[in-house]
Design goal:
111 residues
């Protein structure tokens, strides 16, 4: 797509530059908990099983309140991203229509 008529013949320095991209906010990871409630009350056999089967450790971590908050925040962010993506997809048709009209008008002007 060529620049608007006001910029034909203008030097590249005279053309406006696009605005900088906005910074993406970054979520901060919470610190690791110093302890997990209930581990001290487990038997040696249970602790050995936790050591041998890391998947069992995942269950303990998932039950920790800090992990539950992180999981909830991840769900909220996923939902928000999905909503934004749907809005963007829905705007694509409007953009495509506007682009087609601009190209048609440009062709008429050049003819």
């Amino acid at each position: 797509v060529s620049p608007p008529a006001a910029y034909h013949g203008a030097s590249p320095a005279a053309m406006p530059s696009p605005p900088p991209a906005p910074q993406t906010p970054r979520e901060q990871c919470p610190p690791c908990p110093s302890h997990f409630d209930g581990l001290g009350a487990r038997s040696q056999h249970e602790l050995q099983q936790l050591k041998e089967y890391p998947n069992l450790q995942d269950d303990i971590v998932a039950d920790h309140p800090a992990a539950a908050r992180c999981a909830q925040k991840a769900k909220e962010l996923h939902s928000e991203n999905e909503s934004l993506a749907l809005q963007l997809v829905n705007k694509q048709a409007v953009f495509d229509d506007a682009l087609a009209k601009c190209r048609s008008a440009q062709q008429e002007l050049e003819a």
